[in-house]
Write a structure and sequence with these properties.
Length: about 325
């Protein structure tokens, strides 16, 4: 037999053939779009390091949700920026808080088929910017759980479909599950930020959400990015505590973790393509250094190929437009 006897290029010959043999594709149904909602403002405010992303007043968030449904994106995750912060983040569980009001406004805007996910954390609501109760410079685990329970229940009461405990507080999934069940919200699902790393890629988000820690860092609760086995232990615990969906965050420098989680566990895996990852692409594209649309598809395909069933991404609207063309 002459060499080469197997010609791999046969299936790369034309666009149609390539389309037929494609193994992984980005589907709009895989995407979750983050929305920032700010309390007590009457106009949208652009986020500096995130071109195309705004902090929206509540009414505009409801309109945005409608446009997201019409683009074909199935889900949003809401981040609230309250007008009042305190030591304990108590505005996070206010029945008429910014996220609670937004959930109801979106439901009223007749976007029933939109999946509403909420972020259950305190960093946007605490005066010190940490994700829980702080005493003498330390984040207290169990007192934080009590507050997170109230936050999750208030989101359930307002009509959230899914809550996402994101503070890396030990026991948060179990506590939130129990609280939701006790309050009669057993149908509210939990998407746990199980393996959330202390990353350098959250900067633009912290500006957007006004959630920069006022002292220290988040390394006593978010994971060290050098520890993939620990990430599996975190996921395993969240599964035991009743998570319905587990998440790895960020996505790009963590594709191995996504792959290992998907290989080991048989529940849906989400990946959070975070603000810094978005900013890098937008900045390079603005300079004309990369083709933005093509880079977005390549990046999201890579995250999906690693094993993510769904991707939280600020690119969701861009993808809807790219796929339509
Ligand atoms: C905090 C939280 C963070 C993000 C969402 N919720 C990270 C942080 O500030 O530590 C990051 C999202 C992003 O960067 O896009 N609970
Ligand atoms: Zn937080």
């Amino acid at each position: 037999m002459s060499f080469p006897h197997l010609r791999m290029r046969r299936l790369r010959r034309t666009p149609k053939i390539r389309e037929m043999v494609r193994e992984v594709r980005i589907d709009l149904d895989d995407l979750i779009y983050p929305i920032f909602v700010e309390e007590g403002v009457d106009h949208r405010v652009p986020v500096g390091a995130m071109p195309g992303i705004f902090r929206l007043p509540v009414e505009e968030a409801a309109e945005e949700a409608r446009s997201i449904v019409s683009l074909g994106v199935p889900a949003v995750v809401l981040f609230g920026i309250p007008s009042r912060k305190d030591e304990l983040g108590s505005s996070a569980y206010d029945e008429y808080g910014v996220v609670q009001n937004t959930i109801r406004a979106i439901k009223k805007a007749a976007t029933d088929d939109l999946v509403i996910i909420t972020d259950v954390c305190l960093c946007e609501y605490t005066s010190h910017g940490h994700c829980g109760v702080v005493k003498d410079g330390k984040l207290l685990n169990d007192p934080t759980l009590e507050i997170l329970e109230k936050v999750a229940v208030s989101h359930g009461r307002a009509g959230a479909d899914v809550v996402g405990p994101s503070g890396m507080i030990d026991g948060q999934v179990g506590a939130v599950r129990r609280a939701l069940d006790n309050a009669g919200f057993e149908d509210v699902a939990i998407m746990s930020y199980s393996a959330k790393h202390a990353s350098n890629m959250y900067g633009p988000f912290r500006e957007a959400a006004g959630a920069t820690p006022q002292f220290g860092d988040r390394k006593s609760y978010q994971m060290d990015y050098s520890n993939p086995n620990e990430a599996l232990r975190e996921v395993s615990l969240d599964v035991q505590e009743g998570a319905d969906i587990v998440m790895v965050k960020p996505a790009l420098a963590y594709l191995d973790v996504i792959f290992r989680v998907k290989s080991k566990f048989d529940l849906p895996v989400a990946a959070f393509n975070v603000s810094g990852e978005y900013a890098m692409v937008k900045a390079a594209a603005e300079k004309g250094w990369i083709d933005e649309a093509k880079a977005i598809l390549e990046i999201l395909t890579g995250i999906k190929r690693a094993g993510a069933d769904m991707i939280v991404t600020y690119f969701a609207k861009d993808v809807a437009k790219i796929l339509k063309q």
